[in-house]
Amino acid sequence: xxxxxxxxxxxxxxxxxxxxxxxxxxxxxxxxxxxxxxxxxxxxxxxxxxxxxxxxxxxxxxxxxxxxxxxxxxxxxxxxxxxxxxxxxxxxxxxxxxxxxxxxxxxxxxxxxxxxxxxxxxxxxxxxxxxxxxxxxxxxxxxxxxxxxxxxxxxxxxxxxxxxxxxxxxxxxxxxxxxxxxxxxxxxxxxxxxxxxxxxxxxxxxxxxxxxxxxxxxxxxxxxxxxxx
Length: 229
Known about the structure:
Its main location: cytoplasm. By secondary structure, the protein is mainly alpha-helical.
């Protein structure tokens, strides 16, 4: 007859659950200690306590969110962004995590990515004032960077960018026209910019179901843009 191990298994489960509960309690205590340091502006000490809490319970999104805030207090933006990302990965419904993630990205001047994060946060809470305020701060910064980037482009490159904007806005006929201007502005119609414009113009023709034009532009691309497999 096999021994009855039901009682032993039950005891093991109970002990495991009890240990887990104790660990979570300790983690919460560390978080609370971190909060007290944070309130006093002692960010290094707060980070240490939040890190202790994470070691004890790495599944709690709040600990990463709080540590992200402490990193922001120290101007350690990459670390703040990393913790913000971890926070929203653990709990995609936690809006504050998106805000802190985006603040970290803003600090390292990753404005486009920051806006993506904020838009993701808006899907959870569209009317969140913190998210909307930060969007209003970052959009002009991104526009300024984009303007500076485009100012350094030559005429054909600038026209290609305009065509891309029109394509994104679904203004395909106008985009076709601008891509043509960009191609004409190129010194050679097999330059990288020209090839890119032919390719993008083919995509516009496809959207308009002008398949003969698609074949024509794609044939030009294939003629000059042959790469080894």
